[in-house]
Design goal:
By secondary structure, the protein is α/β, with parallel strands linked by helices. The chain is built from 17 helices and 14 strands. It has helices spanning 3-9, 15-38, 48-59, 82-87, 109-129, 144-158, 173-181, 202-212, 235-245, 260-272, 282-286, 300-309, 317-358, 378-383, 387-397, 444-465, 483-493, and strands spanning 136-140, 164-168, 185-189, 192-194, 197-199, 217-223, 249-252, 277-281, 293-297, 372-376, 404-406, 411-414, 417-420, 433-437. The radius of gyration is 26 Å and the shape is globular. The two termini are 51 Å apart.
Length: 505
Amino acid sequence: MNRESFAAGERLVSPAYVRQGCEARRSHEHLIRLLLEKGKCPEDGWDESTLELFLHELAIMDSNNFLGNCGVGEREGRVASSLVARRHYRFIHGIGRSGDISAVQPKAAGSSLLNKITNSLVLDIIKLAGVHTVASCFVVPMATGMSLTLCFLTLRHKRPKAKYIIWPRIDQKSCFKSMITAGFEPVVIENALEGDELRTDLQAVEAKVQELGPDNVLCVHSTTSCFAPRVPDRLEELAVICANYGIPHVVNNAYGVQSSKCMHLIQQGARVGRIDAFVQSLDKNFMVPVGGAIIAGFNDAFIQEISKMYPGRASASPSLDILITLLSLGSNGYKKLLKERKEMFSYLSNQLKKLSEAYNERLLHTPHNPISLAVTLKTLDEYHDKAVTQLGSMLFTRQVSGARVVPLGSVHTVSGYTFRGFMSHTNNYPCAYLNAASAIGMKMQDVDLFIKRLDKCLKTVRKEQNKDSDVSGVGNYDKTEDVDIEEMALKLDNVLLDPYKDASS
């Protein structure tokens, strides 16, 4: 309702009441105006009524929602199901145009405005998270792997002779296949074991650049967030190597936005050397459905080149999801989540350390990994080569998701490349281990329940592998707790194969 509508309403209802309602609406509109003027995430989150008002105002700016619209083209925002229309808040046209995912659509002003505001808010949050000098970013409706592929395809036009991508090894299929899909040959650089940690072998990277020739290398493809005992790559040193040899540098920052350490590495790498783009997942960092990523960088022109490489229009769903989430949380709400995640990392680390010591195992010392932890499974591996994978199956059937067991000697082929010691990021890690991570949104009760179930599973595996040993864990596991889950799990244990065999895909 505009001012004239409110004035007309005063003839039907007491003017004092109407003016009160008008002032209430203005408070909503004030928040919306500030958002459009500043293009930054509000400090405090919006309530749902303000959010829905904003989304409705944007949606009616799209031609498919015009009262008198007459569409005679092949794409006119027609939707057969009203449920589908409501699910998307009636944003039907998507974002971008055929030549640029960031371009404005003439018949979808509301969707275009949504896209611009979303990218502006995401840029603000990336700066808040630690990459203060980032110049540009955009949300793309693809997960991390395909978003990396888009970056590599953009670089192809700048470096037509290049056919190699130098890649410090991380045993995760999506980032590896992103290079294959783009048509390049990955050059795998094995990690160096330093204590318990697997770290970037800088000498091997530089030697490979010299061997292949800088002009033949498309880029260095590095990683921040990863499973322990691998730790984030030495981004500063890699950035310097890339700057010295004139080689682009693309960083896989999949779930690194939630870590101030990962974001600091990117900021420092860009300060001392070269980082062309860094890619991060929406679902892992912002708790939205899978399907979107953020491509960001320090050169606005190059990021715009990547956006123009995307063929055709794109789904607005990931942009809508992250916009709603950020406006609901506000910057203070997101900072609170980041703070809680750090606290949960310390808590999970302490609890895993206590439990591992009770079973003559130990928490691996990986201080450079701010998200993932690893506990040795040496004693299980001594009993039987299948004991480690059995533990993974037992955790899975007891509804523990995300935990990851890594046996010794696994061999796996990905797109024609064979990896020894697959999932451990190296050919011969000294021991089998179990991973757990403290990711954004984790609560203390999640940690406590995980420790209880892990304790019980370790007891069970030990008893099966060594009938004569009397092992007791530290968890005071209540036998009456989770009884339904336990009964179901016991039935599944006998029929379920190792669900972690392809857990890294």
